[in-house]
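quick q for whoever's on today - can somebody do inverse folding on this one?? i tried earlier but teh output was garbage lol. tokens:
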């Protein structure tokens, strides 16, 4: 029987050469993406910034409603003055780890084509898969495929997303990484329908990662509402795993929900499997203070970004 951990965890992502959280505060964050700096809204940055002068190449200004929307401002349009050079509108290459390369760009949805707080998740999945080269994994809501490319090091991956544009970008990122020959199935489909079909086919996976949105639509107009549809989807994911599988990792962004709720769902559905269920927050640690003399990790703030729950075999 899977054991539920008694205390929540914090998976804290650190900046790397091509990404860093420079500073945060007053409901915004300043990040570096390769040579470019951007300001984006961040409601959970309730504190004051540590730096007085935020200079950036671009800033996302949100719309008036709570459902998203907004626009990017670049260059001279920034109120605090832009750094020199203009942001490439068709994107620019970044890298994570030794293999994975991908294109970052300023999307209409305020993010930049990948989620940097997922970096410790990608590393954890690699730890769970170990030295294997034939693990079969499933990436639901796979977006632009950075996680898929990380998983492809360990064996065949099935990448599922309802957006043709996202899957096309994922395939382009595979080519950019020189990994287009890896055994990846690129599937444009509704995640719930695809997973249900895999259950009927008797499929099995060694690991599953899913990052469902709060609300979405499938390629044929299927409606996804997180609170309504998540339990059935996770139940089908459980049916695709067995006692020899390695993990399931579930992340949720931008909802009024506790990681305890996600853990409770997994505790019910994974009660018949051995292993451990853990839960908590994803976060990014600020670069600010990194160069300060004697500054320890504890002196550098953590910006929470998402909640998660995960099952692991051991």
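ok took a stab at it. sequence:
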């Amino acid at each position: 029987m899977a054991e539920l951990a008694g205390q929540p965890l914090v998976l804290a992502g650190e900046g790397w050469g091509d990404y860093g959280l420079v500073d945060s505060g007053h409901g915004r964050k300043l990040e570096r993406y390769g040579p470019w700096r951007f300001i984006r809204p961040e409601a959970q940055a309730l504190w004051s910034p540590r730096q007085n002068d935020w200079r950036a190449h671009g800033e996302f200004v949100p719309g008036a409603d709570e459902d998203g929307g907004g626009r990017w401002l670049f260059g001279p349009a920034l109120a605090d003055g832009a750094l020199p050079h203009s942001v490439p509108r068709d994107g620019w290459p970044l890298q994570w780890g030794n293999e994975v390369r991908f294109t970052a760009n300023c999307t209409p949805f305020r993010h930049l084509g990948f989620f940097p707080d997922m970096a410790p998740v990608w590393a954890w999945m690699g730890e769970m898969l170990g030295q294997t080269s034939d693990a079969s994994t499933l990436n639901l809501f796979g977006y632009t495929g950075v996680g898929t490319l990380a998983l492809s090091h360990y064996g065949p991956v099935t990448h599922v997303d309802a957006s043709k544009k996202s899957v096309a970008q994922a395939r382009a990122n595979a080519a950019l990484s020189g990994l287009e020959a890896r055994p990846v199935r690129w599937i444009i489909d509704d995640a719930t329908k695809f997973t249900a079909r895999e259950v009927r086919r008797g499929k099995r996976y060694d690991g599953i990662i899913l990052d469902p949105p709060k609300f979405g639509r499938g390629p044929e107009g299927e409606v996804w509402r997180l609170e309504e549809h998540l339990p059935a989807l996770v139940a089908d994911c459980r049916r695709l795993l067995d006692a020899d599988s390695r993990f399931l990792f579930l992340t949720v962004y931008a909802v009024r929900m506790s990681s305890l709720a996600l853990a409770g769902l997994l505790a019910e559905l994974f009660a018949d499997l051995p292993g451990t269920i853990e839960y908590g927050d994803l976060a990014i640690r600020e670069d600010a203070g990194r160069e300060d003399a004697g500054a320890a990790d504890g002196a550098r703030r953590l910006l929470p970004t998402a909640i998660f729950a995960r099952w692991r075999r051991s």
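fwiw DSSP finds six helices and 18 strands in the chain. also The chain has a mean pLDDT of 92. so keep that in mind when u check it
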